[in-house]
Amino acid sequence: MPPEVIYTPESLLRHPVQLFRLMWRDLLASRELAWRLMVRDISAQYRQSFLGFAWAFLPPIVMAAGFTLAGEAKIFNVGTTDLPYPAYVMFSTALWQTFVEAINGPVQAVIVAKPMLARVNFPREAIILAKVGEVLFNFAIKLILIVGLFIWFRIPVSWTAILALVALIHLIMLGTLIGMLLSPLGVLYQDVSKGLTMVTGFWLFLTPVVYPMPSGQGLFGLLVKLNPVTPLLVTTRELATVGVISNPVGFWIVSLITIIGLVVTWIAFRLAMPYAIERVSA
Predict the structure, then answer these.
(1) CA pair distance 197, 45, nearest whole angstrom
(2) How many Cα atoms within 13 Å fall on the side-chain side of residue 6?
(3) Distance (Å, rounded) from C-alpha 34 to C-alpha 135?
(4) 3-state secondary structure of 11
(5) Half-sphere exposure for 16 (CA within 13 Å, toward CB)
(6) CA angle, 199 as apex, 40 and 193 as ends, to 5°?
(7) How does pLDDT run across 168-180, given as a tens digit for each residue?
(8) Cα separation of 229 and 222, whole Å?
């Protein structure tokens, strides 16, 4: 009688080379599906909106108008900014909005795709890539506002503006990392998407979006400096405007952590999603 053979599942974490080959294969295989999902989501986003592309411009304009009026009324003291204050707020808000979209994208994607995830086997990376593409498309629209700001306020542009795109990609990567990390929980609990709105609203005031970098050494100044978004957003703004980076060390530290963290989060996303889908389908 032949011996009984029992197969037991073994984690791919014990075979990292095989794991990374599978990840790379799925990433390449998901390109076409990601493109179709991105086109579908962008078309639905703007087709079902009365104001359409204007939504890419309205938040920065409204925020700039509100804080400019508050500053002129001496409700708070903004301090000295490198740009005219309305341009400073609109540009910074456009960058912040892009970061928040990068966080919300993966969470919203897995929630919307929940029925498809439970029934169809396809590379999960496709829905993440589709949202990253959507974030880049939305920023391309915001770029029209930014170019208009530079022309209206006669802001000089140096060659470092090209490098600002690199810093912007790092900012989007950080948002995508956080969104991917939260997306398996977003499938299981609606609290995640609701809590993100509250957290990012508070996070905004810990980021130098409507004020320059604080020079004080108090608790607030420390929190702003420890905020990982601060060096990425500030560097993007500085490269696009003054051309001088005030905190290159902080920028590269956060960028390196972001790149490594994105790979680790990608692995966690692949391992966690099957369990999350199984619990939803049960």
Answers:
(1) 19
(2) 1
(3) 13
(4) coil
(5) 2
(6) 40
(7) 999 999 999 999 9
(8) 13
Specify whether the CB–CB gap between 81 and 158 falls below 8 A: no
Given phi > 0 = left and psi -120 to 50 = alpha, else beta, which region is 80?
beta
d(CA 179, CA 172): 10
Q: DSSP readout, 49-65?
A: -SSGGGGGTHHHHHHHH
Triad 253, 175, 164: Cα angle to 5°: 60
Integer Cα distance of 3 and 280 in angstroms: 38
Tokens of 138: 């939305």
Global confidence as pTM: 0.87
Mean pLDDT, the chain, as a whole number?
83
Q: What are phi and psi of 77, to 5 degrees?
A: -100, 110
* Among 140, 173, 157, residue whose Cα is nearest residue 266: 173
* Whole-angstrom distance, CA of residue 198 vs CA of residue 201: 5
- DSSP-derived letter for residue 211 is S
Q: Are 206 and 223 in contact (CB under 8 A)?
A: yes
Q: How far is 151 from 160, CA to CA, in rounded Å?
A: 17
Residue showing tokens 């902080």: 250
Distance of CA 223 to the CA centre of its chain: 20
For residue 279, what are the contacts with CB-CB under 8 A and spacing of at least 6?
188
CB 63 within 8 A of CB 159: no
CB 111 within 8 A of CB 193: yes
pLDDT tens-digit readout, 107-158: 888 888 777 777 777 778 889 999 999 999 989 888 888 888 888 888 888 8
